[in-house]
Amino acid sequence: MPGSPGSGLTSRRSSSRCASRCRTWSRPLPQRRGMLIILSSPSGAGKSTLARHLMGWDPTIGFSVSATTRPPRPGEVDGREYSFLSRAAFEAEAVAGRMLEHAEVFGHFYGTPRAPVEEAIAAGRDMLFDIDWQGGQQIRNSDLAEDVVSIFVLPPSIAELERRLRARGQDAPEVIAGRMRKSRDEISHWAEYDHVLINRDIERAAEQVESIVTAERLRRTRQPGLVEFVRGLNREFEERQA
Predict the structure, then answer these.
(1) What is the pLDDT of residues 24-43, one digit of tens each?
(2) Of the candidates 103, 101, 108, 105, the residue with the CA atom closest to the CA atom of residue 64
(3) Taking the CA of residue 123 as centre, how many other CA atoms within 13 Å lie in the half-sphere pointing to its CB?
(4) Domain boundary assignment for the chain
(5) What would the pLDDT profile of 82-100 be if each residue is shown by its tens digit?
(6) Residue 99: what pLDDT?
(7) Fold for domain 36-64+125-222?
(8) How many CA atoms lie within 13 A of 14 on its CB side?
(9) What is the rounded CA–CA span in Å between residue 187 and residue 122?
(10) 3-state secondary structure string, the chain?
(11) Contacting residues for 125 by C-beta, under 8 A, at least 6 apart
């Protein structure tokens, strides 16, 4: 009945319980340290397609724009696909220690500028790397190794790998032959990676990459704020018992 003492007491108790619940639900989630997501594969196995899918799936994932000495291809924009540098400028950056990793591939240098990566990790943002095994190995051996999640993509067969390379229609026959020769060496490094998937179907492979990223984000070691978060839960227990 409105205005009765019993009704008022019930209301106050309900309000108190609600306040406690509201504190629980409004408690900020623990901050997560960013990850370095490495995607590697032989040319034609699908790593670039999977990289584009991953960024569409979660637009908060940043793409690490590599620096390279190779000339731009039609449609490529400096600073978007790559930062295009002269050989002298690239070597100067590498010598100064401003490259997280670098390697020579098919006669051109490729590398990852260090500063943007370190800034993203500290801010809790994930960075995606579409790089070969040499670059992946250097990052895994760097001072950021604990932040790395490495994924290697295998083709379902060598015949399918060659078919995909030819279907792209962007390389001359001799270039395709060179990529096929190099693919055997690249595939030999599969066991160095945390996760390995076989890209028989691109949609299924994309789902697998999503699952890997989701699970890796929940690792205890990637959530340094969990300690304080659990302390807050314990304080709530103490408040309820007081």
Answers:
(1) 445 565 578 899 999 999 99
(2) 101
(3) 12
(4) 36-64+125-222
(5) 999 999 999 999 999 999 9
(6) 94
(7) Rossmann fold (3.40.50)
(8) 6
(9) 32
(10) CCCCHHHHHHHHHHHHHHHHHHHHHHCCCCCCCCCEEEEECCCCCCHHHHHHHHHHHCCCCEECCEEECCCCCCCCCECCCEEECCHHHHHHHHHCCCEEEEEEECCEEEEEEHHHHHHHHHCCCCEEEECCHHHHHHHHCCCCHHHEEEEEEECCCHHHHHHHHHHHCCCCHHHHHHHHHHHHHHHCCHHHCCEEEECCCHHHHHHHHHHHHHHHHCCHHHCCCHHHHHHHHHHHHHHHHC
(11) 34, 60, 61, 62
Distance (Å, whole) CA 220 – CA 209: 20
Per-residue pLDDT of the chain in tens (242 residues, 90 and over written 9): 444 334 343 434 444 444 444 444 455 655 788 999 999 999 999 999 999 999 999 999 999 999 999 999 899 999 988 999 999 999 999 999 999 999 898 899 999 999 999 999 989 999 999 999 998 999 999 999 999 999 999 999 999 999 999 998 888 999 999 999 999 999 999 999 999 999 999 999 999 999 999 999 999 988 888 999 999 999 999 999 98
Nearest to 113 by CA among 76, 64, 150, 69: 64
The pTM score is 0.78
